[in-house]
Structure formats: structure tokens, C-alpha cells
């Protein structure tokens, strides 16, 4: 879609776990080329929202649509691997990598598993079944994305030896191998040092400038306020505020949720 067009449309999406309504008829849109923040207290339903968008969990009701081939198409009944192929890639709240393998191998395996949403461990041997040309193409793609995120000088380091900030960026490179138009990042700045957060924000701005749309769950308010174009705030599964970061920060419902709760 053209800049500003709707990329993702969440239309009264609901998720119940038994009696618990984790996502309560959520409604919001992500537009092309923006960084949108999804914030809210622990347990608000943010990760569940990501799992609905990526098809990891089925919605209880409601619809989710994604722009592809010039139209918004329903993805809420699609399997994860089809959703990835359409152009939605994600990272997880907790780093998922194989510490003993190199940075390049970690990203290449992620690329090979495009569609499996990062469940790397069980499929590590899958890479061995590729023929030489396929393996070369995979390594080339991985190297290209690692260079894009600024880790091109660390291809042959053990992934486990990287600082947490670099591991998070490695995971972004892995997601980029799926050739997404929408990137979902679940708390990418959690636990990072100040300088690492600055580097991460710089990378996300660069990806935005390249046309990427980004939906970001994050706890760190300073990070969110400085980076995002718009914000949606969730509490107890429900949207309690939406708008420009500065507006949202001053909304009574948000102050209540963060300070009064
Ligand atoms: P957040 O990411 O905003 O911290 P989550 O989406 O992880 O919140 O969780 C929202 C609510 O749903 C929490 O009360 C959590 O305990 C519950 N929940 C999440 N996943 C499941 C699950 N698979 N089964 C049952 N309850 C779940
Ligand atoms: Mg979460």
C-alpha cells in the first residue's frame, strides 16, 4: 500500500481463555510506513494480540485483515506460515536463538523456517537437507539482512557471546529474512542498556525510512515516546486510549492505568 494506507486492520478481535477475556474486541489499524506502539500494564493482552495477528492462536471472534496485492484480506483463519508469506514477521518477548551456533547460522535457519514463526530448536537439522544451491541462497539472504541491521561484522561470532542488544537485533534480522512489510516486535528494548536502546531505535527508524511498517509492544515509556508515530493503550484486554504519543501520555485513563492501578 502507499504510505499512510492501512496495512493491518484489527476489527473487534476477541480472545478468551475459558472465562478470561485476554483480548476484548480490540479495534485498531496500523498504517504503511509508521511505527505504532502497543502498550499497557503486564497481563493487558499485548502478547496475545500478537499471537492473534500472527495466527499462533485463533480468534474467539472478530476479524483481522492485512493488505496484500492492493486489498485488505482476512488473515484470522489462516495458518501462521501463510500469514508470514503474506508479509507479517515477528520477534518474541524472550530471545530465541541457538547460543552455540554462529550469528549467520542462526539467521539462516530462521530464514529457512520462514512460516514456522521462529520455532528453531526442533528444526535445526532441517538446514542439512538443503542442496548446495539452496543453502547458498539462504546464507546469502541471511548475510544481506545482517548487513542491513548492522551486524555484518559479526557473522561468525557465536550467537551466545553477543550482548543482549545485539541478540535482539539478530532476531530482527531473522524476521527480515521473511521479506515482511509489517514487523511485530514484542518488547525489543526490555533489559537493554541505554546505548543499546539508542542503537535499536536508530535501526527501527532506518527500517521505517525504507517503508517498513512496525507494530511494537514495549514497556519502556521513554523509548516508546521517542520512537512511535502513534500509540494504542490496552488494559485488561481493552483499548483504553489511542493517538499521538504526547496525547496518549496525558490521557486520564492512561495515567490511571499506569499510576493509579
Ligand atoms: P501482556 O503481553 O500484555 O503482558 P498477555 O497477552 O501475555 O499479556 O496475557 C494476557 C492475559 O491472558 C493474562 O491474564 C494471561 O495470564 C492470559 N493468558 C495469556 N496466554 C494464555 C494462555 N495460553 N492460556 C490462558 N491464559 C493466557
Ligand atoms: Mg507480553
What is the terminal-to-terminal distance?
39 Å
- The 3D shape can be described as globular
> In which range does the helix fraction lie?
25-40%
- Content of β-strand: 25-35%
Rg (CA only): 18 Å
By DSSP, the count of extended strands is 10
Number of helical segments? 9
Q: Unreliable runs, pLDDT <50, ≥5 residues? A: 115-125
Largest sheet geometry: 6 strands, mixed
Overall average residue pLDDT? 90
Biggest sheet strand order reads 6-7-8-3-9-10
CATH class categorisation of the largest domain: Alpha Beta
**Ligand kinds:** adenosine-5'-diphosphate, magnesium ion
CATH topology of the largest domain: Rossmann fold
Q: What does this molecule look like?
A:
The protein has 261 residues and is of the alpha/beta class. It folds into 2 domains: 1-87 and 180-261, P-loop containing nucleotide triphosphate hydrolases (Rossmann fold), CATH 3.40.50; 95-179, Rossmann fold, CATH 3.40.50.300. 35% of the residues lie in helices and 25% in strands. It contains 9 helices and 10 strands. The protein has helices spanning 46-53, 80-86, 103-112, 132-148, 164-176, 194-209, 221-227, 245-249, 252-260; strands spanning 6-17, 20-31, 35-39, 61-68, 71-74, 88-90, 182-186, 213-217, 230-235, 238-243. The strands form 2 sheets. A 6-stranded mixed beta sheet has the order 6-7-8-3-9-10, with helices on both faces. Strands 2-1-4-5 form a 4-stranded antiparallel beta sheet, with helices on one face. Strand 4 (61-68) and strand 5 form a beta hairpin. Helix 3 crosses helix 4, helix 3 packs parallel to helix 5 (164-176) and helix 5 runs parallel beside helix 6 (194-209). The longest helix has 17 residues, at 132-148. The N and C termini lie far apart (39 Å). It binds adenosine-5'-diphosphate and magnesium ion. The site of magnesium ion has 3 residues, from helix 1.
Amino acid at each position: 500500500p502507499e504510505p499512510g494506507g492501512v496495512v493491518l486492520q484489527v476489527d473487534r478481535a476477541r480472545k478468551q481463555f475459558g472465562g478470561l477475556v485476554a483480548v476484548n474486541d480490540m479495534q485498531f489499524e496500523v498504517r504503511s510506513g509508521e511505527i505504532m506502539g502497543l502498550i499497557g500494564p503486564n497481563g493487558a493482552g499485548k502478547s496475545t494480540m500478537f499471537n492473534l495477528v500472527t495466527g499462533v492462536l485463533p480468534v474467539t471472534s472478530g476479524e483481522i485483515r492485512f493488505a496484500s496485492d492492493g486489498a485488505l484480506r482476512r488473515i484470522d483463519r489462516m495458518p501462521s506460515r501463510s500469514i508470514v508469506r503474506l508479509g507479517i514477521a515477528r520477534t518474541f518477548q524472550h530471545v530465541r536463538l541457538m547460543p552455540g551456533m554462529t550469528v549467520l547460522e542462526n539467521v539462516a535457519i530462521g530464514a529457512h523456517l520462514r512460516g514456522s514463526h521462529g520455532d528453531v530448536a526442533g528444526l535445526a537439522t532441517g538446514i542439512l537437507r538443503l542442496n548446495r544451491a539452496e543453502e547458498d541462497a539462504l546464507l546469502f539472504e541471511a548475510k544481506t539482512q545482517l548487513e542491513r541491521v548492522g551486524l555484518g561484522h559479526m557473522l561468525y561470532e557465536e550467537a551466545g557471546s553477543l550482548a543482549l542488544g545485539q541478540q535482539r537485533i539478530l532476531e530482527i534480522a531473522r524476521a527480515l529474512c521473511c521479506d515482511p512489510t509489517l514487523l511485530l516486535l514484542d518488547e525489543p528494548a526490555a533489559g537493554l542498556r541505554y546505548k543499546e536502546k539508542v542503537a535499536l531505535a536508530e535501526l527501527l527508524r532506518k527500517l521505517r525510512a525504507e517503508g517498513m511498517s512496525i507494530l511494537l509492544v514495549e514497556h519502556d515509556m521513554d523509548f516508546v515516546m521517542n520512537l512511535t508515530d502513534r500509540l494504542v493503550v490496552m488494559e485488561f484486554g481493552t483499548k483504553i486510549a489511542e493517538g499521538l504519543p504526547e496525547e496518549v501520555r496525558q490521557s486520564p485513563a492512561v495515567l490511571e492505568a499506569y499510576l493509579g492501578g
